[in-house]
Each structure stands twice: as structure tokens, then as C-alpha cells.
Design brief:
single chain; 141 residues; alpha+beta; 5-stranded mixed beta sheet; globular
């Protein structure tokens, strides 16, 4: 019998990547960490609690609308990302192309401690602002 074949195509920071027959347990975080040049997406708790792995995920919802959400990449199977667009912290800004205002403000106002989870905090806020450019304090909470 013919072997089942699954190719996952995903766009990360605008670059197309393909993964042939990914294991069902292989996460988006593992793919980003080991198969792309984007080290800003961290892996820490691997349980979705710390947010160090946050990325932006853009997809078409059931109503046909394109939406962007901040997700914990450690919890998202790569196979569940087929055809989707991922934005990492490097995708929103860098020293080479200029920093995003969120990145600038975090740095200017000493908003990090050791800095390990700062990219995840930036991406969580970026994801919020994609859908709600003027959030209230309650929205941010």
C-alpha cells in the first residue's frame, strides 16, 4: 500500500518553509528553533505557561476572515499550521531593519529582567495590537 504523505507548508516572516511528514508531536516551536534562523522564539516551560515561545499566527478563520493571534508555539503542532503565516520577534523588527515601537518601548523603559522572555512579551502585545490597536487596561490584563 502507498505510504501516507503529508507536506506542511508554512510561511515564517514571509519565507516559505516545507516540512515533509512531520511527527504529530513536533511543535511549531521546535520547527522555528531547529529549522529557521530565528532564535528569538524561545523554549522554556513547554507547557504554555511562561509565554517565552509566543509568535504571531495569521490564518483564515471559519468565517473567511484573515486573523492574527499571538499563540504559544510550544503547544501548536506544526501539522496544524499548514498554509499559515507565522511572525516571530525578528519579523516585526531588528537592528538591521529598525525596531518595532513595542520593542523600542520595552527597551527604553527597562521592561525586561534577564531578557529571556522579552521576545515572547513583545509578540503577545504585538498579537493583541493586530486586532485591537487601542486596547484598554482590561484588554491588556
Amino acid at each position: 500500500s502507498a505510504r501516507n504523505h503529508m507536506a506542511v507548508e508554512i510561511f515564517i516572516n514571509g519565507v516559505k518553509y516545507t516540512s515533509e511528514n512531520p511527527e504529530p508531536s513536533f511543535t511549531l516551536n521546535e520547527f522555528i528553533r531547529y529549522h529557521t534562523p530565528y532564535p528569538g522564539t524561545k523554549r522554556s516551560c513547554a507547557e504554555g505557561g511562561c509565554g517565552a515561545c509566543a509568535v504571531g499566527l495569521t490564518f483564515t478563520n471559519g468565517d473567511g476572515k484573515t486573523v492574527t493571534r499571538s499563540i504559544n508555539s510550544c503547544l501548536r503542532p506544526l501539522a496544524a499550521c499548514n498554509g499559515m503565516h507565522v511572525t516571530t520577534v525578528e519579523g516585526i523588527g531588528s537592528s538591521a531593519k529598525g525596531y518595532n515601537p513595542i520593542q523600542k518601548r520595552l527597551a527604553e523603559h527597562n521592561g525586561s529582567q534577564c531578557g529571556f522572555c522579552s521576545p515572547g512579551m513583545v509578540m503577545a502585545m504585538w498579537g493583541l495590537l493586530q486586532n485591537n490597536p487601542t486596547p484598554t487596561a482590561l484588554d491588556i490584563e
